[in-house]
Write a structure and sequence with these properties.
With 322 residues, the protein is an alpha/beta fold. The chain is 23% helix and 20% strand. It has a seven-stranded mixed beta sheet with strand order 5-4-3-6-7-8-9. The protein has a two-stranded antiparallel sheet with strand order 1-2. Helix 5 (202-208) links the parallel strand 3 and strand 4. Helix 2 (110-128) packs antiparallel against helix 3 (134-142). The longest helix has 19 residues, at 110-128. It is globular and about 50 Å long. The structure holds S-adenosyl-L-homocysteine. S-adenosyl-L-homocysteine binds next to strand 2, helix 5 and strand 4.
């Protein structure tokens, strides 16, 4: 299943990895108390700022996962690319990782098989909740979510819940991650995709399995750094991270075939609508206390169509950087 959607081998990502160099660092990252949470459809658990911590507590008695360093998809013969940047047109050069080489679990590493089995169960659950896109389900199966969660909480990595990642933010619930990508993809081929709200980097990693090129922007510097650290061992060649205000989009890389917002605003920023390719699809949570996913399709140069989908609960979209 992993073969079908490996990182595309295109050469449109000439920029090198410049600072994803300290793999052990993520283990030292603190886990701050929960923030608001992302959640999903009526069938799915709706999280609130409180539920991320409750989610964390609810399954705290589970058996811990193996250490992230033993995660699948991490190869033993990796080399880091410290080459010079080809261009520095962005406020900060985006980061990229090396191509991933799926590493099948070996009999000597039973922990890996345990985490793979539990991840598979998570994927089956997401499918039962209504996500049907096989590419999206395969992507979910491919990304080791426990590597994006603070080690003390890794036992909860595959529960269908949002979890705290510090700075009052959360890693999104697997169901909503899958659902948004499914809606954005709509069964088609995704070229260039933009995510607003990298957080810990999980959804960006999932996106990298279904799109040719992924850009992801985070406004909170320590989370941008956390995502770099989390993603480093996965060596994803088609993903670039950007520190900045995602409400402005990324005009240098536009147009995008798809845009996903992982944080909710009262409306979708105009800049993002403008950076959508004609025929492109944007999926965003919209609202404050009551939020719904919105699908916005750009149907012409000055024409967008909006559909309101299921209820959800995301952290707020905020302007500027922190
Ligand atoms: N995609 C993440 C979810 C992160 S939570 C995952 O895989 O789980 C949403 C993130 O959006 C937070 O990290 C928050 O800081 C970020 N965010 C909010 N407003 C933003 C903005 N204007 N630009 C970029 N990121 C923003």
């Amino acid at each position: 299943m992993k073969d079908g959607f490996g990182a595309p081998k295109n050469s449109t990502f000439p920029l090198p990895l410049s600072s994803l160099t300290r793999p052990a660092e993520r283990n030292a990252l603190p886990c701050l108390p929960a923030g608001a949470a992302a959640a999903g459809a009526p069938a799915a658990r709706v999280a609130t700022p409180q539920t991320a911590t409750q989610n964390a507590a609810r399954t705290a008695q589970c058996v811990p996962y193996p250490k992230p360093t033993l995660a699948p998809y991490q190869t033993h013969n990796q080399t880091h690319n410290h080459g010079a940047a080809a261009s520095k047109s962005h406020s900060e050069v985006m980061q990229r990782t090396q191509p991933s080489e799926p590493n099948p679990p070996s009999p000597q590493r039973p922990g890996l098989m345990v985490s793979e089995a539990i991840r598979r169960a998570m994927v089956a659950r997401v499918a039962r909740q209504g996500v049907q896109d096989p590419l999206v389900l395969a992507a979910l199966d491919n990304v080791p979510r426990h590597m994006f969660i603070e080690p003390a909480m890794s036992a909860q990595a595959y529960v269908d819940a949002s979890l705290p990642i510090g700075h009052n933010q959360t890693i999104s619930q697997p169901y909503i991650v899958a659902r948004m990508i499914e809606v954005m993809r709509n069964g088609g081929k995704l070229g260039r995709v933009l995510e607003i709200g990298t957080g810990c980097g999980y959804q960006a990693a999932v996106l990298s399995r279904v799109a040719q090129e992924v850009y992801s922007i985070e406004r909170i510097r320590p989370l941008h750094e956390l995502a770099k650290s989390n993603l480093r061992p996965l060596r994803i060649s088609n993903l670039r991270l950007q520190y900045g205000d995602g409400m402005l989009g990324l005009p240098q890389a536009a147009p995008f075939d798809g845009i996903i917002l992982a944080a909710a605003g009262l409306e979708v920023p105009r800049a993002l609508l403008e950076q959508l390719a004609i025929g492109g699809r944007l999926v965003a949570p919209v609202g404050a206390q009551v939020q719904h996913l919105q699908l916005i399709t750009r149907s012409g140069k000055a024409q967008w169509m909006t559909e309101t989908l299921e209820g959800c609960h995301f952290v707020p979209l905020r302007p500027g950087t922190a």
